[in-house]
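Supplementary notes for students who missed Thursday's class. We covered one full example, reproduced here. Read the sequence, then the structure, then the short commentary at the end.
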Amino acid sequence: MYQNQYGSRPSPPLRIDYLLSPRQRLNTLFAVHAISSVFIGIIGYTYPSLASIFFLTENDREAGVARVLVRLFSCLIGAQGIMIWRARSIDDGEIKRAFINAYFICFLLMSVALIIEHTNNEGILSGKSFGILKIMAMIGLTLGYAWFAFFQPPTVFMLGTHSGAKSY
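Structure (token representation):
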């Protein structure tokens, strides 16, 4: 690898063929998941009333409970986004495999729970386009992590990361 005029290696290109290359697929999945999680965590904590797009409440007390729960879970979502971002620079394949297996199970169960709640149609979850988008996002994350959990050889987890992955 060559060095630039400042003596450091340049960041890798952000071309789609690079991001989806076999050496970068896991890093790309982690990066997209991390950035999305931090963004959702910040928005959910700052504006918890936006969750009314997904969840319906019948009175002010339910809205208050929902607001607190949205803020609490937004903190968790944002924090796990930071964990995933930092996991990109871990060189231990077993730790990365543990992240992948845990997220596969998490998103699979979340997808099943959302589908069950939407099909029960008790009026708690909004079934409009945002509700469908929510289910599609969970299924997409499930499939992304399933790909690495079941179809990737163990060497994929051992591949080194590019120089930009260690930035905190």
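Commentary. The longest helix spans residues 60-87. Residues 162-168 have pLDDT under 50 and may be disordered. If anything here is unclear, bring it to office hours.
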